[in-house]
Specification:
Blueprint (H helix, E strand, L loop, with lengths): L12 E4 L5 E4 L5 H13 L3 E5 L5 H12 L3 E4 L5 E4 L13 E2 L4 H11 L5 E5 L10 H10 L2 E5 L7 E7 L8 E3 L5 H12 L4 E6 L6 H8 L4 E5 L5 E6 L8 E3 L4 H13 L4 E8 L6 H8 L3 E10 L2 E9 L7 E2 L11 H10 L1 E6 L12 H11 L3 E5 L2 E7 L18 H13 L4 E3 L12 H8 L2 E4 L4
Parallel strand pairs: 2-15, 3-14, 6-7, 10-11, 18-19
Antiparallel strand pairs: 1-22, 1-23, 3-5, 4-5, 7-9, 8-9, 11-13, 12-13, 15-17, 16-17, 19-21, 20-21
C-alpha cells in the first residue's frame, strides 16, 4: 500500500457535527476497474501501464495473486503500476495458497481465469469472505470442465477455502445468469477467454459492464445482442492474443459517494470530486439522489479506456423521500448504505426495493444498516428484501455517548455511519474503521481536509 496514505488504527472512530465541508478532491481509483486492469494485464502480451490504480488491500490481493501466477507486477515511484503479462494460457501454477483477504471480486474473477488453466490452485480468504457464496460462480465454471472441491459442498454450499483444477480441454458454454451479478458474468467471460469458440452469458437485468469494455480495450472480440426471452447476450471469442495497454483508472463512484453525500447533508457545503467514473451501470445512486432533489452536477466529461468520466459537484440542500425500484439495484448495490443515511435526513419515506443481494456482501448489510440507523434515532423497517427509512426532514439524533455502531468489518458500513455523524445532531462512533483501507485508503485525511471532524481512539 502507498506509504503516503495514513492507515486507520484499530479501535473506535468518531465523527462529530461541525462546519460546512468545502473543497475539490480526488477519490481513490475505481476498485472494479483496478482489479480488472491487473488481471487483464496479466493475460495480455507485452506491458500494461496502469495509472490511478486503487491502492487498497483488496486490489493488493489481486496484484499478489497475479505475481504468484507468474506475471511481473511492479509499482513505480511515480505511482504507475506495470504488468508484464504471460498471455492467455501462459500463467503458471502458484507455489502456495492464494489468499484473497476480504475481496470477493478477486476470488470470483480469479476462479474464472483458473477454470481453463491445466493445474490446481487453492483459494482462501478472511473470515468474512469465507462466508460468502461461491456456488453461483462454481456452477457455470464446472460446465467448462473445471473441477472444484470446496468446504461445505456436502451441505449444498460452496465456500472458501476451495481447490479449483482447471481443464486442459475446455468446452464453450451458453449460460443464463440466475441472479444479476457482474462478478459471475465476468468469471464466465474470463473462462471463455481460455476456451476455443464462443462463450455466451445471458443477463436478464443489466449489470456492470467494466469487463466487456476493458476486454475490448485489450483487443478481445466481445459482442452484445438482445437475448431471446429478454435481456442481453454477451459473447466473447476465445483464445485471443490480448495486447498490453495503458489504463487510466477513474475515481471510484462508490467511494466518491461518501464525501458527496456528506456535502449534500451538511448545510453550506460544496464539494467536487474530480475524474469520477460515470458508467451508467454504476450511476444508480446519483440518479436516485437527483430524484430526491439533490443538487448534483457533472462537468468536464470525457472518456478513459472506454469508460465515461467527469467531475461531480454536490451542494447542500433539502432532500425528499422516494421509492427506489428493484431493477435499479444492480447499478448501485454498494451504495445502499450511504443512500440509507441520506434517506434519514430526507423529508418522508424512502423505500428501497429488492435488496436481497445486500445480505451476502462483506456483511449482512441490510441488517447492519437497519441496526445503525435505529441506534441513531431513525425509524427504519426491513420488510422481506425491502428497506424503508422514515426520513425526518432534518437532522437525526446521532449516538451521543451510546455504544459505537458495529461495522462487522464492513468498510461501507463504517464510512456511511461516519458520514451520519458529521451531519447528525450528536456525534456517531463506529467500533472499527480499519476495513476502510480495503477500498478507500486515505479516507480520514481526505475528509478532514474538507473540514470534517473525525477522530480515532489513538488521536484522543
Amino acid at each position: 500500500m502507498n506509504s503516503s496514505l495514513s492507515v486507520i488504527p484499530p479501535g473506535p472512530v468518531t465523527a462529530r457535527p461541525g462546519a460546512a465541508l468545502a473543497g475539490e478532491i480526488t477519490a481513490p481509483g475505481d476498485k472494479s476497474i483496478s482489479h480488472r486492469a491487473l488481471m487483464f494485464g496479466a493475460l495480455a502480451v507485452g506491458e500494461t501501464a496502469i495509472h490511478g490504480l486503487l491502492e487498497g488491500e483488496d486490489v493488493h490481493r489481486t496484484a499478489a495473486a497475479m505475481r504468484a501466477l507468474g506475471a511481473d507486477v511492479t509499482r513505480g515511484d511515480d505511482g504507475t503500476w506495470r504488468v508484464r503479462g504471460r498471455g492467455i494460457g501462459g500463467l503458471s501454477e502458484p507455489q502456495d495458497v492464494l489468499d484473497m483477504g476480504n475481496s470477493g471480486t478477486s476470488a470470483r474473477l480469479l476462479m474464472g481465469i483458473l477454470a481453463t488453466l491445466p493445474f490446481t490452485c487453492f483459494l482462501t480468504g478472511d473470515a468474512s469472505l469465507r462466508k460468502r457464496p461461491m456456488g453461483r460462480v462454481a456452477t457455470p465454471l464446472e460446465r467448462f470442465g473445471a473441477r472444484i472441491t470446496a468446504r461445505g459442498r456436502a451441505d449444498g454450499k460452496i465456500l472458501l477455502p476451495l481447490a479449483i483444477t482447471g481443464t486442459a480441454e475446455p468446452v464453450p458454454i451458453a449460460y443464463t445468469l440466475p441472479v444479476a451479478s457482474a462478478q459471475v458474468k465476468s468469471a464466465i467471460l474470463l473462462a471463455g477467454l481460455g476456451t476455443p469458440g464462443e462463450t455466451t452469458v445471458i443477463e436478464r437485468a443489466a449489470t456492470r459492464d467494466h469487463t466487456e469494455l476493458m476486454l475490448r480495450h485489450f483487443g478481445a472480440t466481445v459482442r452484445t445482442a438482445p437475448a431471446d426471452g429478454g435481456g442481453t447476450a454477451i459473447t466473447v471469442t476465445g483464445l485471443p492474443e490480448l495486447q498490453g495497454r495503458t489504463v487510466g483508472v477513474p475515481a471510484d463512484p462508490s467511494s466518491a459517494a461518501f464525501p458527496l453525500v456528506a456535502a449534500l447533508l451538511i448545510r453550506g457545503s460544496r464539494v467536487t470530486v474530480r475524474n469520477v467514473g460515470l458508467n451508467p451501470r454504476r450511476a444508480g445512486l446519483y440518479d436516485t439522489l437527483r430524484e430526491m432533489g439533490a443538487d448534483i452536477t457533472v462537468s468536464r466529461p470525457h472518456t478513459e479506456a472506454g469508460e465515461p468520466v467527469g467531475d461531480i459537484t454536490a451542494v447542500a440542500g433539502e432532500l425528499r423521500g422516494v421509492e427506489v425500484p428493484p431493477e435499479r439495484a444492480p447499478t448501485m448495490i454498494d451504495e445502499y448504505p450511504i443512500l440509507a443515511v441520506a434517506a434519514a435526513f430526507a423529508k418522508g419515506d424512502t423505500k428501497m426495493r429488492g435488496l436481497s443481494e445486500l445480505r451476502v456482501k462483506e456483511s449482512d448489510r441490510l441488517s447492519a444498516i437497519a441496526h445503525g440507523l435505529k441506534a441513531c434515532g431513525v425509524e427504519v423497517f426491513v420488510d422481506g428484501d425491502d428497506l424503508i427509512v422514515r426520513g425526518q426532514g432534518g437532522r437525526p439524533a446521532g449516538l451521543a455517548d451510546a455504544a459505537p455502531i458495529p461495522t462487522h468489518l464492513d468498510h461501507r458500513i463504517a464510512m456511511s455511519f461516519l458520514v451520519m455523524g458529521l451531519a447528525a445532531q450528536k456525534p456517531v462512533s463506529v467500533d472499527d474503521a480499519t476495513p476502510i483501507d480495503t477500498s478507500f485508503p486515505g479516507f480520514l485525511p481526505l475528509m478532514r481536509g474538507l473540514g470534517a471532524d473525525i477522530t480515532t481512539s489513538a488521536s484522543l
